[in-house]
Amino acid sequence: MPIPLDVVIIWHMHQPYYKDPLKNEYALPWTYLHGIKDYFDMPAIVEDTPGAKAVFNLVPSLIEQILDYAAGTAVDPFLERGKAAPADLGEDDRIFLLENFFSANRQRMIEPSRRYLELLYMAGEGKPGSARDRVRHFSDQDLLDLQVLFFLAWTGEASRRRYPAFAELAAKGEEFTAADKELLFATQRELLQAIIPCYQRLHREGRVELAVSPYYHPILPLLCDVRSAQTAMPRVTLPTAAFRHPEDARAQIMRGIDYFKQVFGFTPTGMWPSEGSVSNEALEIIAENGIGWIATDEDILVKSLEGGLGEHKERLYRPWRFACRHGEIGAFFRDHQLSDLVGFTYSQWDAGRAVADFCGRLHAIKGRASGEGRVIPICLDGENAWEYYPNNAYDFLQGLYRGIAESPALNLTVCSDVLARNSFDGRLHGIHPGSWINANYGIWIGHPEENLAWDLLATTRNAAVSRNPAVAEALASGKPATDAAVEMICRSLYAAEGSDWFWWYGDDHFSPHSDRFDRLFRQHLMNVYRLLGIDTPRELLEAIKKKSPAGLIREPAGFIDPEINGKISDYFEWLAAGLYDLTRQGSAMHSSDRMLQSFYYGYNKDHLFFRIDGIQELSRMLREIDVLNLHLIYDREYRLPLQMRADEGLLQVRDNNGWVPTSGHCRWKIAKTCEVAIPLEAINPAPKSKLFVSVTLVRDNEEIGRWPTDAPLMIYYAGPEIELDNWLI
To answer: One of this protein's Pfam families, by short name (predicted)?
Structure first.
């Protein structure tokens, strides 16, 4: 009988530590919102599905926050304003509701509710500054409906199936009462209290394996020694301070394991090191603390093995073992493409088609890499993808589990079970230092903002150690201090070591809440000085995250080579591209001004690439006859008319007689987004030159939208030197 191929699915459940140490309140509500949606739905879907098995990796600082909300002890301004009677809200609080209570996926969470969408239109569709102008049009009933609909939209599909109150409120849809709202929050509190017991129950039944991360989700190798970044990024600019504190890495691991054991009653076997970040030193410390297996990305394995993964990546589909002086630790390397399909692609597919495609790929891998001891690891974020799926991915995930569990050729299992019965004896005696993104640490170190954050962390830690011998002793041991103030200093430093703050510094990621992440990082450090009783350095009072003018989020960081298919096929496709936020470019001419959201641009040695994102899927907003014109100005003025019914055409140039075609053959696709490729030779820009770009929308021969309104976007073309000059990612 053929040996079935093992498949393990690891869901990494994580949020930053949002509790402000100075105010003792939550700066952002995402733990609560993902709690009532994903942290409950994900294990509940496993419980609802015969044969389903999965690994859930839970970050201890996330568990702490979930339990805080479940106990009713969390102080959260979003919840307070959501629970307050509209008649008791002042103007600023009413504006707060309009500015924040549409923070939900428009297609999947707002548009299914006629009333919620109506309120969005009334509020100006999120246009910056519109809340203050429009708030006077909102009655108390409008605001009450908004309060209920926002928190109701964030409840998941499994939640609605298990708690009838949610479905009943969704069916009512509008004209909610104070009693309705009270029922909503009381039921959500009940749900939050059921989250951890659900994971415990599934673990006891053998249906899930629970794993852990270091307590505050730090980049372990950079805690051990920031110089480890140079192995993967030889030309990286390191922070001024030489941060080397493996004892902090050890403390984060020890405290994470201890807290996990306190909550769940057993010691975890597995660990997803934060951001999949590994190094020899980090794995030594992990093994020293009794962890039996870790997981990271396939590119780490590529760079750790001579000869790569093999013709069909057959060396990827093995449970490797990392050998060190503390013994051996199992190592799973996630299939990058399969994981990204779930995270970024299948949300726009029919669930049945997506499941069939995924299972077909698993069977194809089995055909190429058959035999005993094979395993396909799939690992990804366990909460952020599902708001892009219908029904919070309930149908897709049930189909996925069933498709694998019911196939005789596949065995859906968990990591510890694979290692317990697998005879593969492949050993790694060294591992490439890197993370799940590009097998390096470029997201978290190297940019001036990131390096400044590391320097401030180092300075604060040195101040704590030099000023208070008890702090020095506690940090050296990594164990909880008996003195409350000393323990709080240690916890504040450990919280500031979390990866999330560094994720939002630099140019590679954008969030409208970047300033709050920046403030939280600095407040963790300010808390240390407050507890030490010394003045806070001025540097901590100034923002690290710099605001870019005119909507510029970042410049290009390197060559890109996206697939022109109108969708995001891979997380990395546009990661090195330049980015403008079109919502910060002023309004366009008519109500269409809120149609476009983001403008990406980049290039390789042959093409210029552009990507235009709408506030929702472009193919749903545009008509067949609409023309989206991409305008470029260099030595002359160029135009490329884009339509959904075509996907290629010639670049046009303006002359005295209007627009005439050039020989530049361009490709594009308008689907979820609009992606465009223009041959460089059609414009032939010189290295280190500037181009100017704008977009117009023409409907029925009338221009109804222009982005930006006043002046084109300036984009800098560095030329081939960008590959040498930038080591951002």
So the answer is: Glyco_hydro_57
Terminal Cα distance for the chain, rounded: 46
Task: Report the 10 Å Cβ neighbour count for 85.
Answer: 12
Lowest-confidence pick of 127-141, 351-365, 456-470:
127-141
- Rounded to whole angstroms, what are the CA distances from 501 to 15, 444, 452? 11, 9, 12
pLDDT tens per residue across span 184-234:
999 999 999 999 999 999 999 999 999 999 999 999 999 999 999 999 899
Q: Tell me the C-alpha distance between 288 and 273, whole Å.
A: 14
Residues 527, 670 within the same domain = no
Q: Residue 708, preceding bond cis, omega within 30 degrees?
A: yes
Of 590, 593, 496, which Cα lies nearest the Cα of 544?
Answer: 496
pTM, 2 dp = 0.83
- Is residue 256 one of the residues assigned to a domain? no
**Looking at the structure, do residues 575 and 514 belong to the same domain, yes or no?**
no
Residue ranges with strand state E in 225-381: 270-271, 293-297, 320-324, 327-334, 375-381
- Give the mean pLDDT of 662-678: 96
Please give the pLDDT value at position 549: 47
Burial, 654: exposed, middle or buried (Cβ in 10 Å; 0-12, 13-18, 19+)? middle
Give the tens place of pLDDT for each residue, 295-340. 999 999 999 998 889 888 999 999 999 999 888 999 999 999 999 9
- Tell me the per-residue pLDDT of 46-86, one tens digit each, with 9 for 90 and over: 999 999 999 999 999 999 999 999 999 999 999 999 999 99
Domain that holds residue 461: 448-541
Q: Is residue 616 part of a domain?
A: yes
Residues 479 and 599 placed together within one structural domain of the fold: no
Residues 531 and 610 in one domain: no
**687 alpha-carbon distance from chain centroid:** 33
Statement to judge: residues 536 and 566 lie in one domain: no
Same domain, 499 and 592: no
Residue ranges of E strands in 278-429: 293-297, 320-324, 327-334, 375-381, 410-413, 427-428
CA distances for 379 relative to 9, 210, 354, 402, angstroms: 6, 14, 17, 18
